[in-house]
Design brief:
Rossmann fold; Immunoglobulin-like; five-stranded parallel beta sheet
Length: about 725
Amino acid sequence: MKINSFLILLFAVFLFVGLNAQEKKKVACIGNSVTYGYTHENPVETSYPSRLQQLLGDDYEVRNFGHSGATLLSKGHRPYIQQKAYTDALAFAPDMAIIHLGLNDTDPRNWPNFRDEFVGDYLALIDTLRAINPKVKIWICRMTPIFNHHPRFKSGTRDWYWQIQHSIEHQVLQLAAPQLQDATECRDKLPQVQLIDLQAPLYNRPDLFHDYLHPNPQGALIIANTVYSAITGDYGGLSLPAIYTDNMVIQRGKYFTVCGKANACAKVKVRLGKQKRTEYAAADGTWRCSFNPMEADGKSYTLTVESEGETLEFKNIVVGEVWLCSGQSNMAWMLKDTNGASAHINSASLKSLRIYDMKPRVFTDNYSWPDEELVNLNEHNHFKPTAWELPTEENIAHFSAVAYHFGAMLADSLNVPVGLICNAVGGAPAESFIDRKTLEFDPILVDILYHWRNNDMIQGWVRERASKNIERGKNPLQRHPYEPAYLFETAIEPLTCYPLRGFIWYQGESNAHNVELYNHIFPVLVDSWRHAWNKDGVADEGLPFCFVQLSSINRPSWPHFRDIQRLHSYTVPNCYMAVSSDKGDPTDVHPRDKQPVGERLARQALHNVYRYEHIVPAGPLPVSAKSVNGAVYVTFENGIGIHAAGGDKIETFEIASDIGTYYPADEVIIEGNTIILRSKMIDTPLRVRYAWQPYTTANMVNAEGLPASTFQLELDSETGEWSLVQKTL
């Protein structure tokens, strides 16, 4: 009897365990070496399927069916469907399948030959899983990144990678399961095949890919968390980007976008004043809504966001003008350290100004950064947490002087609130502000990504300072704000959901070593930002970009650099330049007189963006020139009232023949908006330049006291003329 009772009890236990085992949801992780955990010391514990099992818990059974080198293509060099991992996955008969294949299909043996079969082979794999279990839920993955140091990157992998990515997202997904047309359906019926984006959370983390293809255990954990959220719908509840806070300024006259995250399919209610919107989070947890354009009416608004019992409320919101202020140290330079600072700080009661000041956790001074800051850098926590603030003597004193004077003049002229977002970083080169994909596909700038701290495309001082800051880093791929793409990922991309009027930019000191390269970099940067704020994939050329031409200092390349910047104001649409060479210092790269610089940027914005025609936007700029009887006649726009500031004669004009040496102009005659130049050393002048000294004493201004830009012109040897048509190098 005791034995029989024991057997019955044992049978009951086995039955209970068996029933529970049957109730577990079976998850098959199908893929290649990334799924397997290749390069991990112990993939059994650190591969993403193992970490996923830990996250999902005992109600799930997760198995790793990854096979290194496997291709999705059935005619590829190592087809997944011919591997034991595939037959084991089918025998498992999963309730859920995560498919991450395609990386190895970028091999030149595969995609160039069999690309037309990729979609069909992917659908066949899905159909096979469905045949084993008709109720199986399938997630297909946008692939994890392949970074530029991969040996085949430029020879084909880069291009084929993105073609495969497009096929997965836009062909396989649509054919496998037509997507929901109405987000409200999400709560009732999710499609049987869904998409997981494994690229987005890892594309800005090259530090986790030591061989540029395989994520390390930390990267695998990011994959596991991403897959966990997709399976469970748990995205941590309601959240918005950090830019949404109390006291924020909404850009007037534009649709105001609010975007965020919530749990999958959650209902999200958003209210701004009297406007109400209801959205449903997508299966990936993202949601966004837009409010009708508003005008600056002097009222204070509250933004309320509700979802699943959570409420976020943002108060004291106003409608006005919003500008992003960025660049390097001359933009970051604080008001308290400038000429006349005390008077400006005491006038900080200007209530029409609001600031969002993104200050770095560590500054790029000449020292080794502590270990915890190196970790912060890799995790894109370079900037301290901040919020929109009303102006006080304390925060204005520590805010960008150039941005402050720009905003103060706008607020005074427009009589509306002005919001200023500042994220300038001392010493930062322009390439760090350009998005990674743009750099990868640019035929010139792709090379700036390679071994950047030993790359001559990047200024030597920049590389040396970055190396000093991160010398304690144990990760050979340690990040730094000077690294190409880093500041776009950290400082720019988090803002791109937030509508604004335009940009002001003060940068170039860390690119002045290579004028020709910067001539290419600057338009790419402007285009990168304009694309980022237009989610339709087309650059919004209407977003104005106002920038500061470098001041003067005893650095030999700077006249050429200033002239390249002048040409950009002609060639890049809706780009407007403020001259600062008259405020330079022969030995200090940080001139202290920032008020004129900020106000000159404001003049450009008021004239060109807000159409205040009565405001002269800038100093004299050449529009035509001709050589007649031994004299050069140069005609200027913004040339009314041309005169010499602080002297009787305009200084630093030089002329030359078509070859040979420049000589100072002996005779400088002003006739309206035209300057007539002669030199007894030159019979037939065909070249003319102005302010062509690194530190210049050039003194030509217009009636508004605005200085002329550095420039050099070459006249046609046959016609003796120059015009705006000839504005390229």
